[in-house]
Design goal:
Chain lengths: 161, 553
């Protein structure tokens, strides 16, 4: 059973996360740490498969700003859902850097945070393994109106009506 | 008052449904305690010492009479017949059951009330001067700006999981600080430029709590169009760089202090550069729409000091005393703003019963355009009372015990709920307030002492704002016993300033004696017309310290 929600629906996850200690596999789509990306950027560009970078809290999008065109996906890790730095990172990727690729939330990702994450620019959510991703889908539709503009629609409500 | 559009109501109804579902999942064991916690907090629900506490938002303190009646209904239906006005101008219920909270919130939503973002690590209720719109000293009505901030901050997706709570206050009075902007995470001061256009000074990093300090001026002049973009820039800096691994260092004031105002400003300016001129830019049409929500009421054209008022003042000493203490001047001739004292001795400061709420609603309909304000000093205000009707209003309030003539006087004590209710408290607050009120029960003497703010907090979270009391009292725990530290010289009146610690703490039984000694010394030392705070600022801590500690030996 997949745990991935992408663009509003369940989706197959064909990416593998490579830990900081792990060696890079020979092929396949991989999510690497910022440190691995920075150290092995040249060889990773020749990897047999797609490569995404994972940002931890404290690792800002600015650090990969020049590489965004090469990256089909940015993963943002939430070690704990209450650490909200990733919300600003996603917003920054979408608005400051105009990043169009996938932004995926990974880690402590739960139903009750999905709506805000989605508004900040995340379009993929790797739901925590012990939760039902189908049930979590409901979190994307908690509200039908919003006051502020966001990464989806920059206009505040009074300019939309 | 702000008039809800369809979308405001829809948002509120969807929030009620969302929280009902979250509560059901929690009660069914599908949400862990630590997962449910921030969700319930951002709906105002705390788990407290004896029962949960539900905090209801009162945006910038403004209430309508139907809202007051609904609060009375909630008191009767789901609580023990009373509620509490907090120092954030909000309302707190002390005895709801967790499983009833979705129903309570649904009832409140029917009158456009809610508990949204009244707790948790998010942007809290924006506050302002309780006399906003009627204060003759303000340069413009701050409430339209407060409402714009409310909408920008409500469910702002980026700032729901901040390092810590975040409080914004707006002040429109020059040279005074009735909204305490000096001790807020962001204090917004409304100013006019030389062309007469509205703009804002943005102060960042003030706060009370464990490490009290006043804010730094970060935005020297923010044009009105850019207010929300600038606030967003400040919040983004805080969300990215605020300290998250130590909750005692997590408020924005700590990073402003650590990196310095200069650095904080340059980070803010960088974020602001991305946002300025973008879709967040306020339009004239939107600001005018907000201003139209706070129209000048349909005042009658009457002169100040009508004959009826003069006669009542001349013939009734108690009324006269109340008039001079609890009513204040108004923008509109022939009107006064009236403070309802929730500080009668024996009443927990800020508490009000269901029957009183209903009667105040009735009075507001009859005498004050159906509007009521909560104050950060835990009183209520009828903002627009005709001077020739003041005597009737006073009689009605007096019959309810809401006309104690002590506004701003020593017995108008601000106190958090303290150890009687709150699970964070180290010590009780309410009995200390009562002991002091009983000690100073002579009204003539009370008026002779004059304006004196006493603030009591039951712990260093400082909900009773003890740092800015002229006399501040802080409950501390020493090996399981309750003691009280006293500070002098704080102020939250003309300006905000943090009080100075007097010395070692006192036993519960000693507090009223200590306050009496402090007040006695002031009365002996004061010069003509000097208030307590003036005398303190002139003679300093030492004489007070000697009086209190030497005579204790």
């Amino acid at each position: 059973m997949t745990q991935l929600i992408k663009d509003g629906a369940l989706a197959e996850n064909d990416w593998t996360r490579v830990g900081a200690e792990d060696s890079i596999p020979a092929s396949g789509n991989i999510i690497v740490s910022l440190a691995a990306w920075q150290e092995q950027k040249v060889s990773l560009r020749n990897h047999d498969g797609q490569v995404a970078v994972c940002l931890e809290p404290g690792e800002e999008p600015e650090q990969i700003a020049d590489d965004l065109a090469d990256l089909p996906m940015i993963a943002i890790h939430f070690p704990a859902f209450a650490d909200g730095r990733g919300y600003s990172y996603a917003r920054e990727l979408r608005t400051r850097y105009n990043y169009k690729g996938e932004i995926r939330a990974i880690g402590d990702v739960l139903q009750d945070q999905l709506f805000y994450l989605w508004r900040c620019g995340f379009n993929a959510f790797d739901i925590r393994a012990d939760r039902d991703a189908t049930a979590a889908l409901k979190g994307l539709t908690d509200f039908t109106v919003t006051y502020q503009g966001d990464a989806r629609d920059p206009r505040p409500v009074y300019q939309r009506t | 008052m702000y008039v809800y559009q369809d979308y405001d109501q829809r948002l509120l109804d969807e929030r009620v449904a969302q929280f009902r579902d979250q509560t059901q999942r929690y009660l069914a064991g599908e949400l862990r305690e630590e997962e449910f916690r921030p969700l319930r907090l951002q709906n105002g629900l705390y788990v407290q010492r004896y029962a949960p506490m539900l905090r209801i938002a009162v945006p910038y303190g403004m209430l309508s009479s139907p809202q007051l009646r609904m609060l009375a209904h909630v008191c009767r239906e789901w609580d023990k017949g009373y509620c509490h006005v907090s120092t954030r101008q909000n309302i707190q219920f002390n005895w709801p059951a967790v499983e009833d909270v979705p129903d309570i919130l649904a009832a409140l939503a029917s009158v456009q009330m809610h508990g949204i973002q009244t707790s948790g690590n998010c942007i809290r209720n924006t506050t302002t001067d309780e006399f906003a719109g009627v204060n003759p000293k303000e340069i413009e009505d701050p409430r339209p700006w407060c409402e714009l901030i409310r909408q920008w901050s409500t469910f702002n997706p980026e700032f729901a999981y901040l390092p810590r709570k975040f409080k914004i206050a707006v002040n429109a009075v020059p040279d005074e600080d009735p909204a305490l902007i000096g001790v807020h995470d962001i204090g917004v001061q409304i100013v006019k430029n030389t062309a007469g256009e509205t703009g804002f000074q943005v102060w960042v990093g003030g706060g009370l709590g464990r490490t009290p300090m006043t804010g730094e001026l970060i935005g020297e002049y923010v044009p009105w169009q850019d207010l929300l973009a600038y606030l967003e820039a400040v919040l983004r800096v805080y969300n990215k760089y605020g300290i998250r691994d130590n909750k005692y260092k997590a408020r924005v004031k700590i990073i402003v202090k650590a990196m310095g105002a200069e650095k904080f400003r340059s980070l803010t300016e960088r974020e602001f550069a991305d946002l300025q001129g973008g879709p967040m830019t306020l339009t004239t049409a939107e600001v005018e729409r907000m201003r139209a929500c706070f129209p000048t009421p349909a005042y009658d054209a009457i002169a100040d000091m009508p004959a009826a008022l003069q006669e009542a003042l001349a013939s009734n000493k108690a009324f006269s005393r109340w008039y001079h203490t609890n009513t204040r001047s108004h923008k509109q001739s022939g009107y006064r703003a009236v403070t309802l004292s929730l500080k009668k001795t024996g009443r927990a400061p800020g508490d009000i019963t269901d029957e009183e709420l209903d009667t105040v609603a009735e009075l507001s309909d009859r005498y004050s355009f159906g509007e009521i304000r909560n104050t950060h000093q835990q009183n209520m205000v009828l903002g627009d009372v005709r001077q020739d009707q003041l005597f009737e209003v006073w009689q009605a309030l007096d019959a309810m015990g809401l006309a104690t003539p002590n506004f701003k006087l020593l017995t108008d004590i601000v106190a958090c709920p303290g150890g009687d209710f709150c699970s964070l408290a180290n010590a009780k607050s309410i009995p200390i307030a009562e002991a002091i009120q009983r000690r100073f029960d002579d009204l003539d003497y009370l008026h002779d002492i004059g304006e004196l703010d006493i603030n009591i907090s039951g712990c260093m979270n400082a909900c009773g704002h003890h740092h800015i009391g002229h006399i501040g009292i802080l409950g501390v725990d020493k090996k399981g016993r309750e003691f009280y530290q006293v500070t002098l010289g704080g102020r939250g009146d003309k300006i905000s300033r943090i009080g100075d610690k007097m010395g070692p703490s006192f036993d519960t039984d000693e507090v009223a004696d200590v306050i009496e000694k402090v007040v006695n010394l002031y009365v002996e030392q004061r010069l003509d017309g000097e208030l307590f705070i003036d005398t303190y600022e002139r003679i300093g801590m030492q004489p007070f310290k000697e009086r209190v500690y030497d005579s204790a030996n």
